[in-house]
Amino acid sequence: MTDYTQYAATQHPSVTPQVPDLETQATGQEPQDLRLWLRMLSCCTLIENELRSRLRTEFQTTLPRFDLMSQLTHAPKGLKMSELSRLMMVTNGNITGITDQLEKDGLVERLKDDTDRRSSLIRLTLKGRRYHRRMQRAHASWIQSLLGGLAPAARATLFDLLGDLKQSTYARLPAA
């Protein structure tokens, strides 16, 4: 039994992993950094897959559509597609496809950019804002539920440690 399986069995006796995750399949001979990376990846994948499933089931939408709408809630006047692409860390082509779908559903609109005639601004419609508010409330509840197995102090510590990791990693990236 791996350390995670033992921990899970003692902390959550009714929740034992059905399928070992990546880091518990490791032999223990791998460097700690690799095992840590695999654990973080496993957690992210597990949570992301659940969010994707719930968005699909409860709102008939996708995580990328939700993410794009979330970005637009912070920019009531709208954003250029290139800005959305940068914020979401995806290609302009991906943004165009998602925007086309959302526009077809009446959730976003394209506006002429007064400062640049070659581009347009994307912004939420009233229907889009209302729809996103409902999804956002559900999303927040899902996140609380999924992370609720950790004590508040453990969540705070994990948040701080991941912040340290983010800063440390960023400092080690080659200059762009």
TrEMBL record:
<feature type="region of interest" description="Disordered">
    <location>
        <begin position="1"/>
        <end position="27"/>
    </location>
</feature>
<dbReference type="InterPro" id="IPR000835">
    <property type="entry name" value="HTH_MarR-typ"/>
</dbReference>
<dbReference type="Pfam" id="PF01047">
    <property type="entry name" value="MarR"/>
</dbReference>
<protein>
    <submittedName>
        <fullName>MarR family transcriptional regulator</fullName>
    </submittedName>
</protein>
<dbReference type="InterPro" id="IPR036388">
    <property type="entry name" value="WH-like_DNA-bd_sf"/>
</dbReference>
<keyword id="KW-0805">Transcription regulation</keyword>
<feature type="compositionally biased region" description="Polar residues">
    <location>
        <begin position="1"/>
        <end position="17"/>
    </location>
</feature>
<dbReference type="InterPro" id="IPR039422">
    <property type="entry name" value="MarR/SlyA-like"/>
</dbReference>
<dbReference type="InterPro" id="IPR023187">
    <property type="entry name" value="Tscrpt_reg_MarR-type_CS"/>
</dbReference>
<dbReference type="InterPro" id="IPR036390">
    <property type="entry name" value="WH_DNA-bd_sf"/>
</dbReference>
<feature type="domain" description="HTH marR-type">
    <location>
        <begin position="27"/>
        <end position="167"/>
    </location>
</feature>
<keyword id="KW-0238">DNA-binding</keyword>
<keyword id="KW-0804">Transcription</keyword>
